[in-house]
Every structure is written in C-alpha cells, then in structure tokens.
Amino acid sequence: MMSVSKEIVIALDEGTTNAKAVAIDAAGKVVATFSRALSIQTPREGWVEQSADLLIEASLDVVSQAIAAVGAERVAALAISNQRETAVGWYRRNGRAIASALTWQCSRTAAVCQSLRQQGHEERIKAITGLPVAPLFSASKMRWLLDAIPDGQALAADAEICLGTVDSWLLWHFTGGEAFCCDYSNASRTQLFNLQTAAWDDEMLALFGIPRAALPEIRPSSGEFGRTKGLKTIPDGIPILAMIGDSHAALFAHSLGAEGRVKATYGTGSSVMAPVSSAQSGVNTLATTVAWHDGENLIYGLEGNIPHTGDAVAWMADSTGLSELPVAELAQQLNALPASVDSTLGVYFVPALTGLGAPWWDEQARGLIHGLSRGVKRAHLIRAALESITYQIADVAVAMRQHSDFALKALMVDGGPTRNDWLMQYQADLLGCPVMRSDVAELSAIGAALLARKALLKVGVEALRHYLPEHAIFEPDMTRHGRLQKRWHEWQGAVEIVRSHKHGVAV
User: What residues are paired with 274 via a beta bridge?
Assistant: First the structure.
C-alpha cells in the first residue's frame, strides 16, 4: 500500500504553447498548477520548430515548482502527457540535442511525403501503421534530423544518436540519461510502429531510413519508466509511472476508454477520437492509432482531425465585427445570437480556410458561404459558423462507423467552445446522443495522472472510475434530431461544392 504521506501525483502536461505541472491529491483533486509559456520558431515558410533545451528547461521548472508547493515528502510519482508527433534527436553520450525539435505543425518534409505517395507507398504505410502519409507524423522528421548532420545515419546505426518523441526526450533528462523509452501511444504516432505486432516495423524503418538502434524501447503507458536522478531542483528517486500523448490522455480522463464514449476536443481545430478494440485500419479517411496501454491491455483509437472549428467561429466573429467586443461580452453574444433566430435562413458555412481535414482531406479546398439572401443578418451567419462545428464532427462520426468496433453512446467534449450551451445542445440534437462536457482545464494532465495512479496502487482500470471529473450532460431532443438531418444533408451539399473547387461565395 502507498504511504499515507506520499499521496500526490504530479503530472507534467508538455504542450506546444506551454508546459504545465499539475499536482493531484489522493482524492483526484487538483491542488496546485504551474505553467510556463513556450516559444515557437518559424525560420522558413512551413518550418515550425522549438528549442529542445527549452522544452526541458520549462518542464523541469514547472515540475520543481509543483514539488516545492506540495512538499517533496508527499510526492508519490510523476506522470507525463506530451504534444504528439514532435521529433527530437540527441547525442547519447551527453544528451545534447542535434537540432531544434521539429514540431507536429512542421511541414518541411512535405516533399518527402509527396515522393512516397508518387512511388505508391501510401497504401502500404497506412496498412501497417494506420496513418496516412503526411509531414505531421514523426518518421520523416526523424530522417530530416539525421540528414541535417554529418554522418547522421551512421551515428544513429551505431546507437550514438537517439531519436524520439517528446516523452522520450523528457524521460531521458528526468532520469539523468538512464531511461530511453517511449510509450505505445507516442510510438504509434511515428509512422514506424506496426499496429498488428505492436512493435517497431522493419519495413517502415527501412523505407524511412531510421536505424532501430536509435529508437527508444516501447513500454506501456502505465508503469515505471524510470526514476528522477541528478536534477538540481528535484529529489532523486521519484518514479515516473506514466507517459502518454496529450489527446490520448484527455480521452482516458473523460471515461477510461469506455465503449461508445467518443472524445471531441473543441479548440482552434478539433480532434475526434474513439476507443476501439482492434487495429483495423481500413477506414481510409481516418487514422488508426494506439490510444494507450494501461499496463494490462492495449487499447486502440480511431481519430479524425478537423483544422477549423473554433477557428471558424473566430473568423466569422471577426468578419461580422463581433471580435471588437470585450471577451466576456463576445462569449455572451456567441451564446445569444444563434438562439435568437430559428435557423440560418438556408446559409451554410464550410470553413475550409486552409483546406478540409477529416474525413475529406482536401488541401486545395477553400471556404464557402452558401445560400446568402437579403434577409440574412449577423445572427444567421454566427449561427452558421457554430453549426459548421457540429456538422464537421458529425461527418467524422459517420466515417468512424466504418470501423467494426465503433459505437457512439455519448460524445465527451472539452475545450473553450464547449462553454457555449447552445452549441452543445445543437451537437446533441444533431447526433441524437448525449453530449457530456468536462469543464476541467487540466484534462490531459489528469489522464496521465490517472495512469500513474493505476501503476502506483496496482489496481484495475475500473478502480479509477471514482477519480473521473464530473460532466455536464446535454440530452438530445429526438424530435429535433429528425429535423436536423435535412440541414446536415444540405451542409454536405455545400461541402461537395467546395470539394469540386468552385471557390468563392455562392449566393
């Protein structure tokens, strides 16, 4: 049994824009939070990178503050959730980064990916890894890092260079270089991981030119990865008991992977992820990935990424003058305006501002406001923008139904736009299932902490259920659900106009 005094799990949520440390007590309550902003560099068009050293510095800083706040004698374990797909390379002898970290947003390897498609490799890559060919994923970034230094390939083959995702980079430094591991969820985002064998894949390693000797050991997301060592402001010997990608951690914190509980994060864009029990990767418009390994079972995930959801509303608010309002008043208007009208008067907004994401994947598509008439006012346009979020998420849910293990019993939601009650009710009515909203800002950190708590207490997943954050529930109006199917069908007609590349505004 755990000592009474050692009750705190400190979860490090290392994101793209900030590093956050969250201290969580034995009752699952957040007792302290510390955050530090992270900078992003764009040295060339399409290049997005961060200082790998700053990722470590900021992470150590916030974790140290959290430990000091609660007292080191009370800290039972650390946990890590991290930005996904970002790639780091470093020298094994001294832990120094060979270059900046190439973030998930970086598209410097787009030409490499296009070449792989032209050579006919995409179908095979998707079959093995569950992922479409895209510069988003880590493999092409890792190859770029090796090519950026003299003899990079040879050094990697001789195990003198380490290549990893952010979880492995953090772990290495938190353990004084003693642990070189990543978890299953992060490994599955590299495009080097075989979903069927749950291991690094020789064919993918050869295709991308990544020596196996340079890659970390893959371990379950819940379990001991190593112990802190040699850090100035953190005591030696604190076990690191969980590592997991941030979107996966949020799904775990919502419902522990319960069947039919689909997660949608509403932010600038949206990640929609469903837990599934098999590695079926035949849904071509979505990614199949590892959700997590809880120490006992490997859980898979089906994911669709949408680039413009909250961003669509921000664009429309800006275009209609609403963005000039103070933040609180803007939020109030975004709630009140769509409810003040019965419909959009036939207006549909397809926010393909930089192309369409899942399930369409059309980078050439551009946005469209369809169905304008003389009676259309600002309230109708704002409503159309909010409706576009719900339609896009519903489109991904339809694509998910192609997976044999998929079920939709409830949509678990988080993120800023979910504070809009009108939007949440519309989403519930459109899908015909409950929408369950979490108002906890530290959801990814809580998910990682729960996985650490599981390893700490040596219990099954179900024993964690009473730790889950509460949700506000929006029940669907099934009469309205039937009526909204016509609107959704008309929305899809507007999408078809966009996909045929008839750009501009249709009246």
Answer: 302
